[in-house]
């Protein structure tokens, strides 16, 4: 191979490796707050309905290039439509300083919003950021999609209600039958 061919092959290989390394972060949104660069998104992508996931948060001080590890004064909330929940953020690990995750299970398809309020060190924070859409898990299930969990739960609740109604009717039937037997026995005794 010529020197030029080797150079082109090396550049293509480097671009492929770089794109694989950067790919997970592409769906994350970057926000600048004062001297801090924040990256917000899903910990695991794609995010699927009914599958445990977490909001991912990375904070770096752009002036020093250092990750920010103390976020006790920062509140992170997730919202979908009119529903909102504050997340308990945990550090991802000792080998990933400045990176945090807030665990939960998304139960609705659509776009979720992350709201960050409070302080990062001495800087006030009040930002809201949409993150990638939560998809239906059936889109990646194989060989066939699982039944809809919410529909299955509804069916179970309906079956429980029907069983409860049947039990009530059975008790009423037993009581009416017992009264009938007693009245029949009483009638026989009176006749004699």
Protein described:
The protein is 35% helix and 35% strand. It has 192 residues and is α+β, with helices and mostly antiparallel strands. Strands 1, 2, 3, 4, 7 and 8 form a six-stranded antiparallel β-sheet that branches. A four-stranded antiparallel β-sheet has the order 6-5-9-10, with no helix packed on it.
**Which residues sit in consecutive blocks of at least 5 with pLDDT less than 50?**
9-26
Mean pLDDT rating: 84
In the CATH scheme, what's the topology name of the largest domain? Immunoglobulin-like
The proportion of residues in beta strands is 25-35%
Structural class: alpha+beta
What is the distance, rounded to the nearest whole angstrom, between the alpha carbons of the first and last residues? 119 Å
Counting DSSP E segments of at least 2 residues, the number of strands comes to: 10
Order of helices and strands: HEEEEEEEEEEH
Rg, Å, rounded:
30 Å
């Amino acid at each position: 191979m010529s020197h030029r061919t080797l150079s082109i092959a090396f550049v293509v290989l480097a671009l492929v490796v770089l794109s694989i390394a950067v790919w997970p972060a592409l769906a994350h949104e970057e926000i600048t707050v004062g001297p801090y660069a924040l990256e917000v998104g899903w910990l695991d992508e794609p995010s699927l309905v009914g599958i445990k996931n977490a909001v991912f948060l990375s904070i770096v001080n752009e002036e020093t290039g250092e990750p920010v590890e103390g976020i006790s004064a920062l509140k992170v909330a997730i919202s979908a439509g009119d529903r909102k929940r504050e997340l308990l953020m945990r550090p991802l690990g000792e080998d990933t300083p400045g990176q945090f995750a807030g665990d939960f299970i998304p139960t609705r398809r659509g776009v979720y919003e992350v709201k960050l309020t409070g302080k990062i060190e001495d800087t006030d924070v009040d930002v809201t950021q949409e993150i990638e859409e939560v998809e239906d898990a059936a889109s990646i299930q194989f060989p066939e999609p699982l039944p809809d969990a919410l529909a299955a739960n509804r069916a179970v609740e309906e079956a429980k209600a029907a069983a409860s109604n049947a039990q009530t009717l059975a008790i009423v039937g037993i009581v009416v039958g017992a009264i009938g037997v007693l009245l029949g026995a009483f009638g026989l005794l009176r006749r004699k």
